[in-house]
User: Fold these one by one.
Assistant:
Number 1:
Amino acid sequence: MGELAKGVMQKMLFFTVLMVFLPIFSYFFSKAFIFEGFFGVVQANSYFYAAIVSIVVVHIILGCFIYVAFTEDDTPRPQFKQD
């Protein structure tokens, strides 16, 4: 696998892991500790607010992925023969 393809796959795997774990973590963390624990919001409303936090986290991750994809250096690199 080429060096460029390896870097692309690493970035894709990184953002995939973020998309799987970070929204779930942010949902439960914000529900239990921020909204119910710190602000004292009732449980029925804390589900709604935690879902909003999770959606915002997903959008931030997508925005970061798009930024990284557009700023990626895609200039062709010369292939040197290795003996």
Number 2:
Amino acid sequence: MEQKLSSAVLMFLLFATSMYVSQGVEVDAICKKASNPSFCRNIVNSKPGGAANADLVGIAQYVVDVTRVNVTNTIKLIHRLIRRNVNNSDAREHYTLCLKHFNYETGALRRVELT
């Protein structure tokens, strides 16, 4: 999931910033070269009020915000899984390692916050 979200955000920002659009966003133009164009379109089109009625900066901020929420929710889930597996050292170790890929210090949340 982290890879899809990071990929979608990165692709969006790369292609969106290379295009000059002052009002109204061409979702297909932004997402066509993403590693998963369908996933990209789903995120961009989920913006309340629609992507076509938003400016490029608004869409970019929306995508970053959605990514931040998804990564934060993933971190919360991993913490719950660690607590549930207090007696299972293998599972706890696995989830702790997974948390490193999402946390603020070294993982996805830091990349989102730096965006």
